[in-house]
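Notebook entry, structure prediction.
Reason for the run: the old model in the group folder had no record of what sequence produced it. Starting over properly, with the input documented here first.
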Amino acid sequence: MSVITRWMDRVLYPDHADNWDDTAFRGLILSELKPEMHVLDVGAGAGIVTQLNFHGRVARICGLDPDERVTTNPNLDEGRVGFAEKIPWEDESFDLAFSDNVLEHLENPKAVFKEVARVLKPGGRLLVKTTNKRHYMPVIARLTPHGFHKFYNSLRGRDPEDTFPTTYRVNTGEDMHRCARASGLEVTEVKLIEGRPEYLRLTAATYLAGFAFERVVNRFEVLAPYRIVLMATMAKA
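New structure, fully documented this time:
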């Protein structure tokens, strides 16, 4: 990251730390957590997102991911390797499930939602954070090959091996409502937020373009459907 980018961070977004979106999602999860809960992290990975560490705050926290590093994830009491289309726990095992930056990668989101509903107790909650596909970033992503995504993220200092193919099949509020209804879940809240333009912080010119976009979509509520971060709360009937 260049000196000018860091300077622009301080001037334009003094209240935005790195992973500001995960911090916002952490706040949503904490608002639902209770000490006696059994919790499932769908797509837990290696545990590199420190904002999603709730170990010790609940009775039990489990995680699922196709990445074998999930078994050594320090944020979990138990990590299992697998895909969310077939969750390897018994019916009604969890009070709450959450998923961070996973929905945009799903080939069959309806199957995943059905599996999450199966392992949730009656009245259980699913909390998700994902990318809104109407934002300019996923629009560009859908028009470019996966190799370009890995290259671009490497310029941003991200390990290309942590860049996964995207599908954006359940990445608007409307898509989420339809998929949830067909899966035994009900969407109770959807929130869209726009913050520091993370993907445009490579140069001063791109940063300013992202800053202008952020100011416009946050100023006018009619443009809220074009904000980047989509967070939703769902309940099992």
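Summary: The radius of gyration is 18 Å.
The old model has been moved to the deprecated folder.
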